[in-house]
Structures are given as C-alpha cells and as structure tokens.
Amino acid sequence: MLAAFDAAFSADRGAEMGEFFAEDARLQWPEMEDIVGREAIRQAFVEFTSAFHTISWEPSYQVADVHGDRAYPLGRFVEIRQVRETGEVERVPGRIVYFCRREADGEWRLTHALTSRFGETTLDGTDATI
C-alpha cells in the first residue's frame, strides 16, 4: 500500500491518493486544521496537486510496527516540488507517521496520516541545514 501511495504522490495523482484512506481517516498537515474523512482528504490532495507539481518524492520508512490488522509506519521524506503558479522550486524535508488498518475487504488503508516539516524549506531546491 505504501509503495502504491508513494507512486501516486510522485505522479501528482491527487484523486487516487485519497483512495488509500479509510472512510473515517484523519490527515494532519503542518499549520492546518485536521482534514477528516476520505472525500475531504481526496479533495485536499486534488487541491495540493493543483498547486504543486512533485518533481521528486523520496520517503524513507525507518520503522513499521505491525500488530494484527494494524500497522504504524514511521519515516522521513524529502519532496522537491514546483509551485505551479510561480514556477519556483521548493525542497521540503519532513517526517511521516501513518496509522494503517486492514479493512473488511482485506485492503490496507490509512486511518491517520501526520506529516511535519523537519528543517528548512528552501525555494531553490538545494539542501537546507537540517
């Protein structure tokens, strides 16, 4: 599931990204109110991919704790993205915490997704001091 989610993110497929979330999921992005529910999360990703083009998405999962039908991946990411309106390129380093649940249909879905920035976002795509 994570590989498919990351592939959709890398390809700017916002509507598809929403499908990886449970109906009762909660998305927590930095400096925003929580986004609750699959449809609201799908819309948030559609709006995100309308505003930004992902040039590079490099997640690194360090810990994935699995207990039965629950899983808890933890990791870091570096996203290089272009602001569609201005053409500016940003490098965004961050951290990821996901809570996943195997649903009745056997599919794994995200129930909670939390991302936070880790280090400085730079506007020229270069490395920031972390």
Form type: globular
- In the CATH hierarchy, the architecture is Roll
Largest sheet, strands/sense/barrel: 6 strands, mixed
* Mean pLDDT metric: 92
Query: Structural class of the helix and strand makeup?
Result: alpha+beta
What is the CATH third-level topology name? Nuclear Transport Factor 2, Chain: A
CATH class: Alpha Beta
Report strand order across the widest sheet: 2-1-6-5-4-3
Helix content: 10-25%
Keywords:
single chain, 130 residues, alpha+beta, Nuclear Transport Factor 2, Chain: A, six-stranded mixed β-sheet, 6 strands, 22% helix, globular
Q: What does this protein structure show overall?
A:
The chain has a single domain, classed as Roll (Nuclear Transport Factor 2, Chain: A), CATH 3.10.450. It has a six-stranded mixed sheet, covered by helices on one side. The mean pLDDT is 92. The protein has three helices and six strands. The protein is globular and about 45 Å long. The chain has helices at 2-10, 14-18, 38-51; strands at 21-28, 35-36, 52-67, 70-83, 89-102, 108-117. It has 130 residues and is of the alpha+beta class.
